[in-house]
Amino acid sequence: MAKYGVVVGSIRKNSFSKGVADAIVAGLPADAKVTYLDIASLPLYNQDYDADSPTEYTVFRQEVAAQDAIIFVTPEHNRSISAALKNALDVASRPWGQNMWAGKPALVASQSISGISGVLANHVLRQSLVFLDMPTMQQPELYIGSSNKLADDHGSIINEGTKKFLADSGYKFSEFAQKLF
User: Fold this and answer.
1) Quick one: pLDDT band at residue 153, thresholds 50, 70, 90?
2) Range of 16's domain?
3) Residues ≥6 apart with Cβ < 8 Å to 100
4) Which residues are within 8 A (CB) of 20 and not within 5 positions of it... i.e. 6 or more apart?
5) Within 13 Å and on the Cβ side, how many CA atoms surround 103?
6) Which stretch is the leader sequence (predicted)?
């Protein structure tokens, strides 16, 4: 049974990113163990904490370490990833030499209300994952635009074609990840 961690880059209530993540998770194998990793409660990373980390850092690092693969869904904030997601990447990759992300297969999905569907956030995140030593699934590329036709007021994906595409992507990711375990 593979363990999949899900990191949702938006920390707002009813986020569209969470709906995208849920639709991807729906395509994972039935026996997959899925854990949504909470990034909202992480204090802002500060290297001064490396010697004596806050409890939230320690718990988060342990949760990341326990996963076999990671699904990232990021909104696009000012042509980049959210501050909360960047902070989570930093917290679990530090102190230097203790990168909890290393070697874990990753899937990247982005979403935005912009016409480019978060493509820049997607690639900013991919750039960080290269440095963090995370083999990342290349295809399909998951750039999800938002509209009233895709999601309801709670952020859940309601468009059947989009739900199928995301679930199929989750299944493809499980196949990709299995090759690397």
Assistant:
1) confident
2) 3-178
3) 61, 64, 65, 92, 93
4) 73, 109, 111, 142, 144, 157, 166
5) 9
6) none
pLDDT of residue 147: 63
Radius of gyration, alpha carbons of the chain: 15
The enclosing domain of 41 has a CATH number of 3.40.50.360
Token pair recorded at residue 60: 């988060």
Read off the tokens for 34.
């899925």
To which residue do tokens 């969470």 refer?
A: 18
Our count of domains for the chain comes to: 1
Contact 118, 147 (CB under 8 A): no
Degrees to nearest 5, angle at CA 73 with 99 and 70: 40
Q: Tokens 């718990």 map to which residue?
A: 59
User: What's the rounded Cα separation, in Å, for the pair 98 and 8?
Assistant: 22
Tens-digit pLDDT profile for residues 31-59: 999 999 999 999 999 999 999 999 999 99
The neighbour count for residue 114, using CB atoms within 10 Å, is 14
Separation between Cα atoms, residue 113 and residue 17, nearest integer Å: 11
Give the pLDDT score at 49. Answer: 95
Query: What count of other Cβ atoms lies within 10 Å of the Cβ of residue 138?
Result: 9
Count CB-CB contacts under 10 A for residue 46.
Answer: 13
